[in-house]
Structures are given as structure tokens and as C-alpha cells.
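protien #1 (seq + structre)
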Amino acid sequence: MLELELDFEALGEVFSTTQSAPFTVIEIEVEQAATFADRLGVPVRRCYISDPSLQARIADTSVSARTIIESKLPDRGSTMAGDFGEILTALFHAASEHPGVVLDPKKWRLKQDRTKPAPGSDVVQMILPQWPAASADDRIICAEVKTKSTSGTSTPIASAIADSEKDSSRRFVKTLNWLKERAIDTGLSTISIEQLDRFIHPVDHPEATREFRAVAVICASLVADELIGVVPPPPSERALIVISVPDLKETYERVFDAALLTAEDVEDVA
């Protein structure tokens, strides 16, 4: 996540833990959420296209930075909401691990259709403290993320738990192999084939830790109702994390508007 050039120590102050058992509840204050557009516009854009790739596309196509960024970002609606929930989860993990370094393949860069979610497990991140040497301290995090920004019948907590079970059965391994295929085909700038193989072929390395997480990113005004009757999974199987965001819909729309506006800075540099 270093390529996002975020101050993860400062970002960690955004996530306030208000409950840690039997599951975790994280609250983001209104004042902190109000800063997201300014703080996250560039990092969110980089989740979809890196600076070098953006500059290369501008040079190769003579198309404006804004047009290229528009071709990457989702439209307003459920996909934008879901993508924001996934990115926020990835940032939360990176801030929680700081000063440790989290490696993330940025699955949002690998979409074939910007109007749809990326395939496979939602968030896959690696912590490899002694790399290039594999060690027993190596960890891989796999999170299933559900986002609810407006009132409705969806049940993000129960759905995140249920779909996280799919990750720990088969989907997680399929996702790692899909990422390896992408690495071989087009290349991944943030994770190597060797790092993927460290977890695809675990018997060839010291035993590592797999952590499965069910994450629900919910508008703060809806959280109390969504928490009623929650039955968390056994902690030994997966962690349940609920992240409360004030005015979630307005917040993520402002962030994506800011991500598009970063084109102006890119074009000024060019």
C-alpha cells in the first residue's frame, strides 16, 4: 500500500474502536469523514490506475488524464458503493498494521468492466515481514466486504459472514490463482508471482497464517438497526468487523468526485 503515498499512522486515527468483542465495531467521526475527499482522492484514483500507468496511457493515446480516469472509475450506484467499502477496508487493514507494510494487488486495477465489481475475493492482502525470505511470521488477509449506504432490505453483516465462508472453502484459492494468471499475463506492479506462490504452494514454505474477515461498511444512521440480533462467527474461523461511516453515500461520492478531479493535477504536471 506504500504506492498510495498515504500517512497510515495519521490515517489510523480515523478508525476508532468502540467495541472489540464478540466482534469489532469501528466508528469514523463526522469530522474525520468530512476530510475524506481531500485525503483520499489521489489514493483512491491510484487504486484504479498507478501514476506511471496513467502517464504512459496519456503518452500512448494522447487522451486526457480525465478521460482515462473516467474509464476506470465506477459510476454512481451499487458498484461505486461496493468499491468504496473494499478500498476503505484495505486502508483500515494497512493503517492497523502500520508500521508494518501491507502488500495489496489492487484488484480494482484488474477489472474488465468498470461498472461491475472485481471478481473473486474482495480484499486480499499480504504481510511478509522478512521478504524475500518466507517466514512463519507471514500472513495473508482475505476479507469479504458488504456495504450499505441507504435504507433497504439488504443485510450486510449476515451477507458478509456467509460470503466469507465461501472464501475459506474455495474462492480464496481460486482468487490467488486468478491473480497469478494476471501477473503472468499483464503483470502486477505491487505483488510478485513469487509472493503469490508463497501462499498458493504453502507446503513449500514455513507455515503462514491465513486470516478470514467478514467486513460490513454501513452508514452510521443505519448501524444500530443492523447490529440487532447479530450472531458473530467463531473468532477461530473469521473476524467480524463493522465500520460505521457518517453519511456514507455522500462521503463516497465526494471521494470519487475528488479522485476524478486529480486529473487536473496530472495534466498540470504533464
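ok now protien #2
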Amino acid sequence: MNNDPKLNDLLKWSINASTTTTTGDDSTPQIQAPNAEALAALFGNRKSDAQLMQEAMLVINSQDPVVTPDDRLTAFDNFEQLVENLDNANNMENLALWPPLLRLLGHAEPDMRMYAAWCVGTAVQNNGKTQEALRNKGSDGLPALLNMAVTDTDKSVRKKAIGAISSATRNYQAGLDAVQAALPKDLAIEQKLDAADMDSVDVLINKLREHSARLE
């Protein structure tokens, strides 16, 4: 049996919360909140998602020789899972995590470029706030992804870049307009594309996929 007094206090609070009865038809049970120290003892001093995101990005960009390529890819995987959460993705702007992530789109290693595009795509999926944040990054954002999708020599990188463009433009007209305007002449689309029409967006995405397939 655990004799930690903090945990015992928390157990007592839980029992009281589940068994408290009222003293009258209109009375409201008054249950004292659990002790903060008791909660800390139960859950530990867990790091926030914001801290975990920042630490992952530090590992990804670390120049320390102790950090291996596998360490960086693991950190990338952790970061991608974190930004699947809408609040975490929205918090990237406040944490200044967009610039270091977008710089990685130009990394010398294909795996790093691929993971960077993957994380961008996850962060902007079904999220107007992050779609706008990406578009506001100028040439480091959507144009960089488009350049990857059209010119990168690695098939996996092109695939993730196209996926990120797909996520960044669906239901976000300003992003779709920006990508359409930046298309190379040989990939230009004359018709006006509609971000709210998935078939219309697919005209762009399928053209990019077809171009990518020709590069193989």
C-alpha cells in the first residue's frame, strides 16, 4: 500500500467526490479541490506540449555530433505527432517554430526535407489559422513547397511536398490562389480553381502528381 500522504489525500478527495450527497433539494455539494501537490505526485512534473515541441525542434536542428541522424528523425516523428493537435499546431506561431521548420525544406538530406514537408502538411491540415500562417511566410512557405514538388530529385520528398500543398490549399482560397499563380508556365492552369471544391483543388494536385511521375 502506498503511504505517500499526498496520494492518500488525493484518494480521499476522489472518494468524497463520488459519495457526497446533498442536504436538501436545492443544495449544491461543496467538494474541496484536490491539493496541487497531490496532483503533482500522481501525474509527475510532466512537460507541456509546447516544451516538447521546442525540444524536438532543437534536436532536429542540433549541430552537436552526439545527435545522430536517427535522433533527428525520431524528434521529427515526435514533432509531427504533436502538431496533429489543433492547439499545438496553432501554437507554432507563438513559439516561433515556423521559421526553423521551413528552413529544413531546403536541407541537404532528403529525409530531412521529407519530414519537414510532412510536418508542414500535418500542421496545416483542416486548419485555416495555420494555413494562413504558412502563406504569410512568403517565399519560405508555399513557394518553397511548390519548388520541392516540381524540382526535387527525391520521389518521397516530392510526394510529401505535394501532400503539404494539398493540405495547405483545401478550403483556403488565398493559399490556392498563391500556389496557382506561382506554377511554372508548363504547369499553368488557366481555369480559376475553387478551394471549397475538392475536385477543383484536385486539378492542381493531380497535375503536380503527374509531373512528379514523369521525373522518375
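The chain has a mean pLDDT of 88.
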